Amino acid sequence: MYEQTVRLNDNEKVLRVNSNTGEIIGDVKKRLNHIPDNKALHKFDSFAKVNDKAIEFLESVLSNEELGIVMKMISRADYDTNVMLPLNDESSYRDLANEFKLNKNKITTIFGKLFDLGVYAQVRVANGVYKNYWTLNPYISWKGRLIEKSIAIYFKNTIIAKQVS
C-alpha cells in the first residue's frame, strides 16, 4: 500500500482506483479546510468582490456623485454575469435619473464618462430577438466565484483594466 497527495480544484473529485485492475472503487471524500471556531464561511450571492485598486483609480478621476453611481452599479450587478438589469441602451433618461437619483440633464455627460473609462459595456445580442443590456466591468467588481473569460475579454483593454493589471 502507498499514499499519494493530490491537489484538486473546487470542481474536482478524487476516486479510488485499484492499480492492479484499474477498477474505480468509489469516492474518496474531499476533506474540508479546517475552519477556526471563531470564523465562518459566507455563501451569500449578495456579496460583491470589489477591486481596491480600481476603486482607488476611480476615486482619483471621478466626482463623488459619479463614484456613487459606480457603487450603485455594483449593487445592481447580477451574480455570475455582472449584468445590471434592467439597465440597457433603451433605458430612458427619466428611468436612469430615477434609478441613480440624478438630474436628467447630467445623464449623457456622466454615463458617457463612465463608458469611456470602461466602467460598463453596452451589449447587444441577437437570439432571434435583439436583447440589450449593460454589464459592469469585472475588473472593478464581481459577484460570483469564477469570472467567465467571455465577459472579462470585453474589458481587457479598458482604462480600468490597464490601471489594475
Task: Please tag this protein with its features.
165 residues, two-stranded antiparallel sheet, 6 helices, 16% strand
What does this 3D model show about the protein?
The protein has a two-stranded antiparallel ribbon with strand order 1-2. The protein contains six helices and six strands. It is elongated and about 75 Å long. It has a single domain, classed as Winged helix-like DNA-binding domain superfamily/Winged helix DNA-binding domain (Arc Repressor Mutant, subunit A, Orthogonal Bundle), CATH 1.10.10.10. The relative contact order is 0.15.
Question: Major sheet: size, sense and barrel closure?
Answer: 2 strands, antiparallel
CATH topology annotation: Arc Repressor Mutant, subunit A
CATH class: Mainly Alpha
Strand content: 15-25%
Give the CA-CA distance, first to last residue. 47 Å
The average pLDDT value, as a whole number, equals 84
Strand order of the largest sheet: 1-2
Structural class computed from helices and strand pairing: alpha+beta
Weakly predicted, low-confidence segments:
none
Total of helices: 6
Number of strands: 6
- Approximately how much helix is present in the residues? 25-40%
| H/E topology pattern | EEEHHHHEEEHH
Radius of gyration: 22 Å
Task: Count the domains.
Answer: 1
The coarse silhouette is elongated
Under CATH, the homologous superfamily reads Winged helix-like DNA-binding domain superfamily/Winged helix DNA-binding domain
